[in-house]
Structure to design on (578 residues):
């Protein structure tokens, strides 16, 4: 595995790689990240993984400084996973001195959920991913489903800016007890860790109720609120039942299905999870018009 | 010559073109544009020209609606000039319905000169050029020196976003009497047209004074102001003697040279022109240290 730091290093190695799937990460890797490496390798000649804790997507008072880091361990894991090229840039390699160009995503898609809780977050995400795509020039961008709104925002950015890259979304990877894997899980105390799977359980209950025919969005939201409030270690920040493309809150789940997403605090950790309620199977056209 | 309208049309043809130089234009072509086609063709297998009057770079009250257009004539000229592919998109082909991603260039570079006169102008330019580059995927972006600040801003955008495209700048093309070619020259009445070459003459005088050793920036600016004010048909909006990279106004022209730029109104027409005062030739190193 090659390891690059500067843009020039990266480009020099990338030039010989054929088609590339890029997995952008903030490091402190877990099996969820490594599953994305597998996804990228299935469809491309080579896999590039970037490790970069992007300052522009953190707000004031967020955990930029304390975000967990262990680059040596990360590189060992990537080497074992068969990654071809790891890009571990410094801040100045991504944002050159005097950098003043930002990618902004306006409108309702970034005003809700994570965008409402973390003003400017998605501008930081859109900016850094645009830069990573510019420098790495991959054929596919491979991301995890856990950050559902991030995926929706980036899908928009790629289309809006005409960036011809496939956006490939890998499933959320989970611990045995259902907790979605996240680098931030390391913030959890043992008691919080034991309590946190309530998030996944509440979403599973929503799935079951939906499968049984429930379509009232507020009923589904209430279910999550009740589930999580029964767990004193956790505090729900939001639960959303939204259109899977626009992320507009729904009154009823229609034939296009829904994205059910939540954010919750367990001590120092702010955890996300989500589930997609599948679109209705289109019935065969009636034989009588 | 192929003519494409949608992104898909464009990409389908572009795929067979080898290396490409892209000349982005707003149409109503003149010899300045065609000189950029020649520049592009010298270094690349093929030339793509876009014709698109970009609404996002016009402010309220500007001439978006009245901007001169003649696409049929433009296409004839491009065909004759040996262009391989003309892209003539509708607004929705550049900005798909629901488009909400904008490229913003912050800081002093876009706060001065054209950026001060036309708030939001360079965000519109940066956004549309990023989209054109995304869709066309050229090897070089070829632009004219007349829009000097635009060139400086886009140079920043390409570097900041890691977009690996050569920025090639062709010289300003001029009428016999020195007036810089511009699609907006069509707005000039005969009397205004006769008066407008004062802009170029004032810049030529600056060049002569600089060559004779004048380094005081305010002296150079005053010279332009005096020259233009002697012409009643014109009204100078600004004259700048600035660092050629940062566009910060200078007190004295140092060894890095300067960009002298101006904007002036002649009736309905707002005209730009500029000249670069060359950097000092570095003297040979002294033989005695």
């Amino acid at each position: 595995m090659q390891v690059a730091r500067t843009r020039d290093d990266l480009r020099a190695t990338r030039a010989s790689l054929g088609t590339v799937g890029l997995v952008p990460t903030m490091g402190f890797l877990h099996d969820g990240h490594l599953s994305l490496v597998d996804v990228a390798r299935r469809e491309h000649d080579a896999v590039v993984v970037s490790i970069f804790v992007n300052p522009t997507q953190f707000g004031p008072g967020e955990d930029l400084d304390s975000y967990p880091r262990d680059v040596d361990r990360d590189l060992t894991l990537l080497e074992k996973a068969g990654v071809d090229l790891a890009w571990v840039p410094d801040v100045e390699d991504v944002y050159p001195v005097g950098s003043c160009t930002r990618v902004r995503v306006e409108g309702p898609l970034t005003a809700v959920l994570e965008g409402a809780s973390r003003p400017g977050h998605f501008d930081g995400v859109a900016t850094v991913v645009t830069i990573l795509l510019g420098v790495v020039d991959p054929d596919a961008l491979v991301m995890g489903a856990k950050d559902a709104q991030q995926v929706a925002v980036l899908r928009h950015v790629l289309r809006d800016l005409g960036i011809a890259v496939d956006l490939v979304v890998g499933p959320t990877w989970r611990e045995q007890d259902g907790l979605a894997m996240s680098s931030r899980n390391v913030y959890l105390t043992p008691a919080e860790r034991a309590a946190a799977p309530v998030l996944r359980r509440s979403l599973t209950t929503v799935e079951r109720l939906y499968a049984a025919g429930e379509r009232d969005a507020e009923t589904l939201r209430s279910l999550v609120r009740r589930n999580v409030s029964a767990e004193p270690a956790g505090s729900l920040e939001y639960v959303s039942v939204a259109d899977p493309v626009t992320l507009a809150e729904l009154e009823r789940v229609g034939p296009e299905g829904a994205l059910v997403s939540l954010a919750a605090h367990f001590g120092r950790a702010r955890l996300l999870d989500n589930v997609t309620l599948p679109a209705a199977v289109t019935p065969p056209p009636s034989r009588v018009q």
Notes: Chain A has a mean pLDDT of 96. The domain at 2-170 of chain A is CATH 3.40.50.620 (Rossmann fold).
